[in-house]
Amino acid sequence: MDQSKIDTLREQSVPAFSHLIEGVHVPASDGGTVDILSPINGTVLTTTAKGTKADMDAAIASARAAFEDGRWAGQPPAARKKVLMKWADLIEENVLELAVLGVRDNGTEISMAIKAEPGSAAVTIRYYAEALDKIYGEIAPTPGDILGMIHKEPVGVVGAIIPWNFPMMIGAWKLGPALAMGNSVVLKPSESASLSLMRMAELALEAGLPPGVLNAVTGEGHVVGEALGLSMDVDVLVFTGSGATGRKLMEYAARSNMKRVYLELGGKSPNIVFADAPNLDEAAKVTAGGIFRNSGQVCVAGSRLLVEASIHNEFVAAVAKASEAMRVGDPLSVDTHIGAINSDDQLNANLGFVKTAIAEGGEIITGGERILEETGGYYMAPTIVTGVTKDATLAQKEVFGPVLGVTPFSSEEEAISLANSTVYGLAGAAWTANLGRAHRMVKAVRTGVMHINTYGGVDGTVPLGGIGQSGNGSDKSLHAIEKYLNLKTAWIKL
User: Fold this and answer.
1) Can you tell me the distance from the alpha carbon of 457 to that of 337, in angstroms, rounded to the nearest whole number?
2) DSSP 3-state helix, strand, coil percentages of the chain (rounded to 5)?
3) Helix or strand or coil: residue 158?
4) I need a surface site. Which of 49, 142, 162, 225 has the fewest CB within 10 A?
5) Is the separation of the CB atoms in 452 and 460 below 8 Å?
6) Which helix (H) or strand (E) holds 243?
7) Cross-strand bridge partners of residue 431
8) Which of 109, 191, 299, 412 does the annotation list as catalytic?
């Protein structure tokens, strides 16, 4: 990466962002705006439209009209593929601009953001563009005088609510398969990090996506998010974020048209290290990255470290050493390993978890405090807390910050019991050289993704989905397409 180009982009003024409805920029119906603070230095970066219920209703009506008249759903698969491939190309052509804009908005370190955000989004859009003309219907094994056909049809209007930690990456996980299958989409970005995703939506129009097929409304969740969830004209709702919001969306669906709701929610993922791990130094470095990159603001972060008692002290010291070598600071510097916390509220919540952990008997090994306060930004030192019991707050509640809780175990059975002792089931890992144990851990730990001798790095060819209170349905892979299709049976007597 070229630091000089990054510095040039960081100095550029950011225009105000308005809604995107029927292919044009539209201000809030009452003229309301929201100041967007940069977590890098706490200053106002720009404004976005503060959406109203009327704004969201207009966006949904646009999406419904676009679906019903077939301007996108009625196009041949090859035509839809061409537009989506062009969209992916445009994202790649603007990769640095998008990455820097996103970092200024949410604080992710640029070294991660450039790959995980626009880089990942382009790959995802292209993946589903390539897949869309390879989704076949089926012929059922019926009696000879009956032809049973199973058609796969787009669901209609999809509402997509996207979080602030990786808006382009997670946005593409929803937009890619939904649009590839011919649906129309109403996008609701996070109010605290919407800029890069809104810019990405603009590029979709530039690529040739017909107006109205993708609409985007910015604003507060309790206003425009609620309007999206309660709409009688939205067929499927997809969401990544907190469990509390996920519950509300399910309630909205029940109160309205019983729309399908797919949720990717929180996690308290166990990272389990056995004494026979093949390389403890490597495990320590990966463990530190698995919780501290993006300041721990990752849904699958390995936030619970379960360590075999015989190596507990040695391994915790190695993780602390690795974390202290990670440079926290300006997220737009290519030398930074850990960027900013997304907001002042999130930073204070993180620090509150640390205070609670100490009150409940935990011991801070490193970190635990706000740093770089003089910058005006929101930064926190990577924090490791030992002595975390199974029922402690730090073992049970998602922090969504750079805080690692450590718990020892004495046997494989105890490790499994600890791993499964929360309401979550999103991700996990086990480090062991024992092949039999590795397979047992994959089977026994209740989670959507289980890593062995690594953490993170799974690509778009495999699904990401949770169990328990980590959600339902899957993002990524061909399986994600299933959320955006209806099955229709044709039963024909010959």
Assistant:
1) 17
2) 45, 20, 35
3) strand
4) 142
5) no
6) helix 243-255
7) 273
8) 299
Q: Render pLDDT for 212-237 as a digit per residue (tens, 0 to 9).
A: 999 999 999 999 999 999 999 999 99
Q: What gap in Å lies between CA 93 and CA 118, rounded to an integer?
A: 10
138 is catalytic: no
pLDDT computed for residue 1 by the predictor? 80
Q: How far is CA 314 from CA 275, 284, 317, 320, 479, in A?
A: 10, 10, 5, 10, 41
Task: Tell me whether residue 398 is one of the annotated catalytic residues.
Answer: no
Nearest to 98 by CA among 210, 193, 212: 193
| Cα dihedral value 87, 92, 95, 99, nearest 10 | 60
Give residue-wise pLDDT tens across range 452-489.
Answer: 999 998 899 999 999 999 999 999 999 999 999 999 99
Is residue 239 a contact partner of residue 264, using CB atoms and an 8 Å limit? yes
- Residue 455's alpha-carbon distances to 177, 287, 314, 421, 444, in angstroms, are 26, 7, 20, 20, 18
Grouping H, G, I as helix, E, B as strand and the rest as coil, residue 319 is helix
Whether pLDDT at 365 is above 90: yes
The conformation of residue 327, written as its DSSP 8-state character, comes to: P
- Residue 487: count other Cβ atoms within 10 Å of its Cβ: 11
Count up the domains in the chain and report the number. Answer: 2
H or E element that contains 260: strand 260-264
| 8 A C-beta contact, residue 115 and residue 103 | no
Specify if 59 maps to a domain. Answer: yes
Residue 167 lies in domain:
3-265+471-491
Which one from 22, 117, 191, 264 is the annotated catalytic residue? 264
Ranges of beta strands (E only) in 51-145 are 138-139
Residue 115 near residue 462 (C-beta atoms within 8 A): no
In a domain, 465, yes or no: no
Q: Where would I find the H helices in 162-242?
A: 167-180, 195-206, 226-230
* pTM of this structure: 0.97
Q: What CATH code is carried by the domain that includes residue 92?
A: 3.40.605.10
Q: How many residues are given for the chain?
A: 494
Beta carbons of 338 and 295 less than 8 angstroms apart: yes
Is the same domain home to 306 and 239? no
CA distance 280 to 284: 6
Angle at 387 between CA 381 and CA 391, to 5 degrees: 105
- Tokens matching residue 449: 């993704």
CATH number for position 338: 3.40.309.10
| One domain, residues 243 and 287 | no
Structure tokens at 127: 């993946």
Q: Are residues 163 and 77 in the same domain?
A: yes
